[in-house]
Design brief:
The complex is a heterodimer. Chain A is mostly beta strands. In chain A, about 0% of the residues lie in helices and about 55% in strands. In chain A, the strands form two sheets. In chain A, strands 2, 4, 5, 6, 9, 10 and 11 form a seven-stranded mixed beta sheet that branches. In chain A, strands 1-3-8-7 form a four-stranded antiparallel beta sheet, with no helix packed on it. By secondary structure, chain B is mostly beta strands. Classes of the chains: A mainly beta, B mainly beta.
């Protein structure tokens, strides 16, 4: 039972480079989320999706784009990475009929 | 704009003691208040949750106390154990979709 799987687990980028973080869930959940976690800031919502083909902005969406082409996948893109985007990124998913969200193990991203 | 304020930032408790973490919120539209537990290198996992029509919820050694009029809620960990050492996040959800998290509390239980 994989649950929520994030790829990659670690990545180092140079300023200005682009990359895509992949989140995959095998629980047939409708809702998916991307958060970033920074010391003393808790988890802040970047973008979320309530279904295939739909996305919405969260608290801190600037500099990020997302896509949900398939129900089980939620992609987070950084078009031009900046040092301020150094963080640990978490993906989560939840069933529309359930309150519990399940998190992946995180992606540690460093932008130098 | 932090809508859920959590305190303390860190907490050290003796084994067998009571750990108390407090949270306060502003938005009265929040309708669900979960607590998440996170171990190093792992994602957060749901620990216990409460809705605003209930003043207290207990699951084993973990209790949420909820004060709707004061817009505050707290997590109590009874008989704290070294295995409880982790980071705890309170959270609040509105609109059925978005969950806002507190800044987190790092708990260390001394053996």
């Amino acid at each position: 039972n994989a649950g929520v799987t994030q790829t990659p687990k670690f990545r180092v980028l140079k300023t200005g480079q682009s990359m895509t973080l992949l989140c995959a869930q095998d629980m047939n959940h409708e809702y998916m989320y991307w958060y970033r976690q920074d010391p003393g800031m808790g988890l802040r919502l970047i973008h979320y999706s309530v279904g295939e083909g739909t996305t919405a902005k969260g608290e801190v969406p600037d500099g990020y784009n997302v896509s949900r082409l398939k129900k089980q996948n939620f992609l987070l893109g950084l078009e031009s990475a900046a040092p301020s985007q150094t963080s640990v990124y978490f993906c989560a998913s939840r069933s529309a009929g359930n309150t519990e969200a399940f998190f992946g193990q995180g992606t540690r991203l460093t932008v130098v | 704009q932090q809508q859920v304020k959590q305190s303390p930032q860190s907490l050290i408790v003796q084994k067998g003691g009571i750990s108390i973490i407090n949270c306060a919120y502003e938005n009265t539209a929040f309708d669900y208040f979960p607590w998440y537990q996170q171990f190093p290198g792992k994602g957060p996992a749901l620990l216990i949750a409460i809705r605003p029509d209930v003043s207290e919820k207990k699951e084993g050694r973990f209790t949420i106390s909820f004060n709707k009029s004061a817009k505050q809620f707290s997590l109590h960990i009874m008989d704290s154990q070294p295995g409880d050492s982790a980071t705890y996040f309170c959270a609040a959800r509105t609109g059925g979709f978005k969950t806002i998290f507190g800044a987190g509390t790092r708990l260390f239980v001394k053996a």
